[in-house]
């Protein structure tokens, strides 16, 4: 990364704030001399055990409060989930100790980052007292467990398994997503993490061993009325030849990361008008009413589907589903076709990400998202599809083009949750369901707006509207994808015929006439 790492005690907090506003991520020197590095080393070794051993050791036994939780072998990585007070008896004591210390150290670092963003020296205009911030984060003490003021923060240790697929950047890593919490701190043993920049490009983020990556999460972005944009990020595992190791024991081993997710306590309340010092009337309507964490998270769940953000129960369900249907289920039409076609990196990125339109924050969308996104993403998407269909078609017969496009059509891929064909939808935030990748303003949401106006919109009505609206969006997205696949097939045929010169075009015209001639 181009910019220098930030030293929190030395650099003014405004530097951090500005960098997060600009990039939605920053690299800092670890403000707490914690055992993060040691934990990476110890865990790299721990992850070398067979999957079954790890699962047996780190998954909490049935009948306990954390039953079934702890270790998740996913298709593209294995995740060890660590919460406050973690310590399954099956895990060696030294590993438990180091991991707990790393948890505590990262938690402190995250609190320091949050505090600096709200300190008056940050020139951020953000306002929250230390007491308020403590209320947001919740109490770490074990005796508050389960209460609405208890900490929900979690440490995810991920070991990325290598993928044999020819689209490793899609299947062997982590799909693009936004973290749900306040902020995430990441330490890792090698390259792979990427953050979506405002211009739609993916920026590799490579902290060195003493550094941490700070990512803004959905909750903090919402609490600051979008002033701090949430980081859209993904993990693209480097090929083994290019993987450089920052930790001696992990050389040649899969990338390992520690992602500490500072999450809001369940009962915390966020009022952007107070936090930003902006009169409520001046805020985007989506931010006007204060929200509690639970409400915020329900809206988040309705619009963001990612295994990294789910509750553990949801993860387990999805895990089972993925074991049956692993490969194409992660892949969006655009991304799959772009990858297969070797389309230009820019078109791949735009197609996968929909540019900044995928940013889940309703207000203060980057200019590119509000103006160019729908058209640009649609074009990028079409290009990616055509790029796949066309070369195949040129080498063979027109029918092959249709088949190539059809093979990428909706039936051949499915994705849990809304299919991300961004940009084809309206890129505005919905007042009802809180969708930001493009609510169609379905009648459910229009109703909700009316209810709101009359003061009758409860959180259950919002949940209902969100569900119904999401369903409608999925149908619409499906139609868009089908339409696009048809367009790609037609376009590929025209290119094929055009490639044969005038004779080809005449042939195309006569074929069309014959097709359309009355029987
Ligand atoms: O492995 C990483 O660097 C990031 C993982 C991640 O994004 C997550 O767990 O939410
Ligand atoms: Fe993440």
From TrEMBL:
Listed transmembrane segments: none
Cross-referenced Pfam families: 2OG-FeII_Oxy (PF03171)
Compositional bias segments (type: Low complexity): 314-323, 334-366
Chain spans, region Disordered: 306-366
Residue ranges constituting the Fe2OG dioxygenase domain according to the UniProt record: 150-264
Gene3D superfamilies: B-lactam Antibiotic, Isopenicillin N Synthase, Chain
InterPro entries found in the cross-reference section: IPNS-like_FE2OG_OXY (IPR044861), IPNS-like_sf (IPR027443), Iron_ascorbate_oxido_reductase (IPR050231), Oxoglu/Fe-dep_dioxygenase_dom (IPR005123)
Name of the protein this chain belongs to: Fe2OG dioxygenase domain-containing protein
